[in-house]
Amino acid sequence: MSNYSKFTVVELRRQCKEKGIKRYSRLRKAELIDLIQRHDDERDRGQIRNIYPFKQEVFEEPKVKTETLPIQVKRQNIAFKSRLETWRFTTNYKPQDPLEQYVTATSKAILNRLQISLSKHSSLKANLWLSCTYKKGEETQDFYFNTENQEIHRSTDLKEALTNMKQTLRTRMDEFQARGSGWALININFVQLAIVKYAPYRGSSYIELPDQIKN
Questions:
Q1: Residue 191 belongs to what domain range?
Q2: What is the pLDDT of residues 149-163, one digit of tens each?
Q3: Are residues 123 and 30 in the same domain?
Q4: Rounded to whole angstroms, how far apart are CA atoms 99 and 171?
Q5: What is the per-residue DSSP string for 125-139?
Q6: What letter does residue 156 receive in the DSSP assignment?
Q7: If exposure means fewest CB atoms within 10 Å of the residue's CB, which of 19, 35, 191, 215 is most exposed?
């Protein structure tokens, strides 16, 4: 499979022309990559179907069977017009290194939800929220840590994107405890994935010159 991210826009447009892809002239680089990859994926699936006449279900996106994993996945009802969907992931796993082990345990389910969303939307933004319980003396309190929205396209390395978001959560938790607040982490309650609408701006490549320059 070609690594289209190394191609220039001119080279990507040439690829579109050679592959018989239409309506690509005004697309930006990320959108061109997405368009070509979808074309290649569909071509490959067609070739496999011709060689191996399996049932349609074989070619559908695999789904995580959450009932067989120690993870509970639940969709949240949050009324934001820009929000596509929000998912909460919980598990009873409580290791020595809570954040790394907890998010690692839920990573497969989070990646699965992102892949499903990307099958419906070519581009989106996503962020993570982490709910933790801290204790100071006899008092307990919940605190929340979050990442900024991150742009995600079908050409994005999802594992790398998730790793970056996890590192942001780790940094913010460390900064919180480094302030000398006296709060000690005793539990991670859940990690929440928010998926937000995102439509990259598309601009025309043609800008008309002023009359004084044209003349």
A1: 66-197
A2: 999 998 899 999 998
A3: no
A4: 11
A5: EEEEEEEEEEEETTE
A6: S
A7: 215
